Every structure is written in C-alpha cells, then in structure tokens.
Amino acid sequence: MTTLPEWLSDNRDTTALAAMLSPASSQSIETLAAESRAITLRRFGRTMTLYAPLYLSNYCSSGCAYCGFASDRKTPRHRLEPDEIRRELAAMKKLGISDILLLTGERTAAADFDYLQRSVAIAAEEMQRVSVEAFPMSVNEYRALADCGCTGITIYQETYNRERYEALHRWGPKKDFIARLETPARALEGGIKSVGLGVLLGLSDPVQDALSLYRHVRHLGRRYWRAGMSVSFPRMRPQTGGYEPPFPVDDLLLARIIFAFRIALPDTELVLSTRESATFRDGMAGLGITRMSIESRTTVGGYCESENEESKEKTGKGQFEISDDRTAKEFCAALRRQNIEPVFKNWELSYNGPSSSITLATQPKKEEPCH
Amino acid sequence: MLQMITIDLNGQQQPLTPGSTVIDLLAVIGSDGKSVAVVVNDCIIRPENRPSHLLQEGDRVELLIFAGGG
Amino acid sequence: MDSLQIGSYTFSSRLILGTGKFSNSTVMLDAVRASGAQLVTVALRRFNREQAEDDLFGPLSAIEGITLMPNTSGASTAAEAVRAAHIARELSGSPFIKVEIHPNPQHLMPDPIETYEASRILAKEGFLVMPYIAADPVLAKRLEEVGCASVMPLGSAIGSGQGLATSEMLNIIIRESGIPVIVDAGLRSPSEAAHAMEMGCEAVLVNSAVAAAGNPQAMAEAFAEAVAAGRKAFRAGLMQKSGFAVATSPLTSFLGTH
C-alpha cells in the first residue's frame, strides 16, 4: 500500500480553519458570514462569475457507489458527436453563456482522450473559456489539452479518507486513491492554468475532508504558485442511483464550511452549482461564493431547444437532480437585486495555452493537431 | 643588478624577484597563507599549487580574507 | 527537536549573526559566543598587512559549532557575486553563500535581477544559496524554483532599525514558501526578532542591532532569548485574533432558525 503523502497531514496552518469548523467553535455562523462577506468584498468585489456545464458523454467505466452514471446503472448511454456539440454550444451561447465546463465519465473506449481533445478544440472555437471535468490524465495529455484551449481542470477527490474512498469506488481506474490525489498536480505540471478541487460532501466526515481539502489547496499553491485555484462544494443530492449519504451535511454546516474556506483562503475562487436551492444560492452570493453555474443540464447535452421525447430517452436521466432551475435571466436578476454583477466573460482567449514555468520551458512544444 | 618584476597586488604595484612563486609573495607581504584566498588573473590558486605557481610580470593578484560583514 | 534544517545542515540556534560594524574583533567574537549563533556571516576583503588582525577566519572557526556563511557584499553584478562565491568557498570550505548584491550605496537595496541570476548559477554549482532580497513574494518563489536553500527577505533597509516594515509581504512569503524564510536586515530590537519568529520565520539574521548596541554581548544574548521565545510561541499555536466584523442586519436568516 503506497504511503500517503506528507502534505495530507500537514498541520502547518490548519489551526484557524479547524477552529472555525470545530463543533465546539464559539464563532457563530453570523460572525463567520460577516467576516467572509468582508473578505469577499475586498478581494472579489460585488461580482459573480457564471459558467455552465456540458455533459459530453455519460459512458463510464467506474463503479462509484454514489453516482447515477456508474457503469452498472441502467441509464441509457450517449455521447455527443461534433455536430451535436456545436448545436449545444450555439444553444448555450444564446443563453449568454461563454464559460463552459465539459464533462465526461471515467475513461472509456467511447469517450476516450482523443474524443475529449477534439471536443475541447470545438468548444474553444465557440466559448471564451473552456474547462474540463473528466477522467485523470497524464501530464502529456494535459499539455495537449492546454494546447487545444483548455485552461481549467476540475477534479474532485470525492473524499480524502482513504478507507472510505476505496469502499465507495468499487471498480475501474477510479479505485486508485493515490492516482486520483495526484491528478491536479499532473494537470498543473502539464501547463493547465487552473484547477478546481472539491470533496463530495456526505461521503465522509465533512470536517476532516474539509481540512484535507484545504491542505491540498495549500500544497498545490506552494508548488504551482502561478496556478489559479478554485474550490467547489458539491453536496450529495438525491440521485438516480438511490445512494444515501452516510454523513449528511445540512445547510448550516455547508454554509459554515464555505465561510471558513473564504476566511482561510481569501484569494481562492469558491464555487456553488445548481445542486443547491435558489434560496441557498441567493443567500451565499456575496457572502463567500464567487462562481456559480447557471442553466445547468446534467443530462448529456440538453441545451438544444429541439429536444423532443425521442432525444430525452436517448439522453436519459441526469447525473444529479438540479435544485435551482432558474433561467440565466432570472438568476442574473436575482443577483442584481442583491447588488451583485453577473459576469459571463472573465477570460481572454489570448490567455489560452500552457502556463509558462521553469519546468515547462525545457519541454519542446508538441505540434500535434487538435482535431 | 637583478631586474625586479612588478605585479598588481590588491590594486597596488608590488615589486618581486623574478621566479617568485605565490608562496614567495605571501612571505614578502607577511601573510602565513592560512586564511588567505589567492586569485591570480581571475584564477583561484589553491594552497597545494602555491609553491609551484610562478608569478609573471603584470599579473593581477588579489589576496582576500574574511572580515566582518552582515 | 525543533532544529533549523538547511540543506544537510542542522542548527539548534535560529539566530544568525552578522559580524560587521563591531568596534573590534574581540567585541564581535564575544557577541557571537554570547548569542549561541551557529551560522555567522562574513565578508570578503583584501588582505592588508597593516591590519592583519582583521582576519576572522581563524578566530571564528575556533568557536565550537560555527559554520561560516560568506556574503557577496561588494558585488554589484551576478558575475561578481559568482566570482566572490567561488573565492569564499575556497577559503571557508562552507557551501553556504549569502547572495548580497546592492549596487546603490545610499539605501543598499538588493538588485533582484542580478540576485536571481547569481542564485540560479550558484545553486546549480551546489552552493547552499541564501539570497538577500526585498520582501517580494514572486521573487521569493522564483528563487525557490531555481534551487535556493532559503530566502532572506529584508525587514527594512540595512542598518535602518525600522523593524518589520515589510510584515504584510513577509506574511505572504512565509505562507507560500516551501523553503525556510529568514528575515534579514533592519531589525532593531529582540521583540522584533520574536515577532518575526511568531510570524513563522525559520530564523532571523541580525547584525547592526547587536554591533551598535550599548553592550553588544548582552544584546546578543537578548536576541537569542527572543528568537527562542518567538519560535516556541509559534510552535505552541498562537490564539486567533478576533477582528471579526459584525453586520448591522443578519446575513444568515436564509439558513433557517439556528
């Protein structure tokens, strides 16, 4: 059994975060909210960066106990072909979206690296910013993605508790805890400019996972100091697989975790998806969250207006249920009512390409076509 | 009359008998050589090479020690 | 044991002492001994037969547990600093080199570009490079990247006694650094040294504050005690400062009753 890396138990500066998250903490939620808001205002102003997910494929080789797309689930499988991708992108652009997250399941023959790379290239033609949440890749694969226009990789450890992790990831490549743990570092090594980390709250002790997640962010930040970082807070929702989270996290605890992260990581983007309710999202906007998804579809594709019964059958159910199903227009209006400016474009295409760094400077640039 | 050679020692002219080695120079100026670095024309002359290193006319020699500093 | 680790060297003292500006070498050596410092800086100077007693190599090496850290003071380019480093290593046998390049004699601020270049070269040659820099967080990471053994950001200008004027930047450097951060320059009092240690510095370098004190030996002792106290406090976990704001109307009512 490979030994766990030292940084996973590094307590160099976890005191403040641990104090805020401790059940015995004397800091009220209102106090934390106020401090979190003050820091958010100073560092990010009154803005909310907006993005939308596009599921390219729900083929999957893994057997995660908690996921509706696990390879043993009976959901119909589909992957978007290039013309379908283009149609989805056009539909998303009509909604104002220009920052997208492309998703696939774990690596399969149907949705492999080449498929992903081609899809990234297509998306980079239409969108201002392309991030990917897919399967762990090699440093060279990440470099190729960076060359094709991907500037962000999201990869959740799900849980930093090794025993729990191994119990939940029953088969497939995702079963390897250490390989998963090292993925964000590989992405950064490959020149991807920012990574998004997170745990799936509900799978394990949330306070311990939060501390490990914090250590991960700090560790990567020291090593890849030019990198952008973001932290998401996906919380187990009722889903098509029927998995009951053993450590359910209520609104109060989730809010506390988010405030504590804002205070402990003042410059880190904090992300909330449409898994959460409109009330919760509206409440957290301006208090600590700086990036949110909108108009989300968690089925494959799903943005095309031409959606009929036939294609619904093809795409099947989503990976998780959406709680906030407001349109972009409605959501932006809600933000504006709170004096928060919705930001659809927070990137410039000329920033695309691999990150420059000492380690990369010695690598010859691979001149391979993106298509 | 013996023709002296002249070297530049720490920025100043220093006469020496021809055929002088670094060791001879150190003796002339009163250094025991123990805590001195010797640099001749930008080359560091290690202690083991000092007895054999001959000095030539016009050589630039720096003799350096450790002194107080922050 | 909580020792300072630099390269393969382990030091129990986290006070590094500079040897400049003392009235004479006897006072300086007494101060070094009193401070318990195990790493001391020295400068290269031309041998002068009229001042043969200025040589410190012998007397310093005689103090038990001492490792010399020569500096490149006097150099104003990377090339000069590299040359000085080679000469210094030849003389001392120590792999430590404090890369100190300050071309402007008015304020003695370090040149970041020459410092980076010299550090890059010397680190490759196997020196334990200790670069003296302004408290620039990005420069600190770049120096770490090229293999420096530590970074030594200034607290304030050399000899100015302005203390930890750069504390905001120091905090960032300390937080982000993967190598020891050693505050060097500008400290005036032991309490400032303790504060630097409480912030998370791995060591402090002090020179003028001791050399210019009324009683350098006693001041050296005071600094040693302060550095130890500050480190102990850091390790003990200082209590959180509560500077939390209080909103005028509740922010979290959307979470329901709590």
Strand tally of chain B: 5
Helix content class of chain B:
10-25%
Main pleated-sheet profile of chain A: 8 strands, parallel, barrel
Low-pLDDT ranges of chain B: none
Distance between the termini of chain B: 49 Å
Report the portion of residues of chain A in β strands. Answer: 5-15%
Shape of chain B: globular
Q: What would the principal axes of the Cα set say about the shape of chain A?
A: globular
Which structural class is indicated by helix and strand composition of chain A?
Answer: alpha/beta
Number of strands of chain A: 9
* CATH superfamily (homologous) name of chain A: Aldolase class I
The CATH topology of chain A is what?
TIM Barrel
CATH architecture of chain B: Roll
Number of domains of chain B: 1
- Give the chain pair forming the largest contact, with residue counts: B-C, 22 and 39 residues
Q: What multimeric state do the chains show?
A: heterotrimer
Q: What letter string, H or E per element, gives the SSE order of chain B?
A: EEHEEE
* Mean model confidence by pLDDT of chain B: 91
Compose a concise summary of this entry:
The complex is a heterotrimer of chains A (371), B (70) and C (258). Chain B is mainly β. Chain B has 1 helix and 5 strands, in the order E-E-H-E-E-E.
Sum up the structure in keywords:
heterotrimer, A: 371 residues, alpha/beta, TIM Barrel, eight-stranded parallel beta barrel, 14 helices, 37% helix, 12% strand, C: globular
List the helices and strands and how they pair.
The complex is a heterotrimer of chains A (371), B (70) and C (258).
Chain A: H1 15-21, H2 29-44, E1 47-55, H3 82-94, E2 99-103, H4 113-126, E3 129-133, H5 139-147, E4 150-154, H6 162-168, H7 177-181, H8 183-189, E5 194-198, H9 206-223, E6 228-232, H10 251-264, E7 269-272, H11 278-284, E8 291-293, H12 309-315, H13 328-337, E9 341-343, H14 358-361
Parallel strand pairs in A: 1-2, 1-8, 1-9, 2-3, 3-4, 4-5, 5-6, 6-7, 7-8
Helix pairs in contact in A: 1-10, 2-10, 3-4
Chain B: E1 5-9, E2 12-16, H1 22-29, E3 37-40, E4 43-44, E5 60-68
Parallel strand pairs in B: 1-5
Antiparallel strand pairs in B: 1-2, 3-4, 3-5
Chain C: E1 4-6, E2 9-11, E3 15-18, H1 25-35, E4 39-46, H2 57-62, E5 67-70, H3 78-92, E6 96-99, H4 112-124, E7 128-133, H5 137-145, E8 152-153, H6 167-176, E9 182-184, H7 190-199, E10 203-206, H8 208-211, H9 216-236
Parallel strand pairs in C: 3-4, 3-10, 4-5, 6-7, 7-8, 9-10
Antiparallel strand pairs in C: 1-2
Helix pairs in contact in C: 1-9, 3-4, 5-6, 7-9
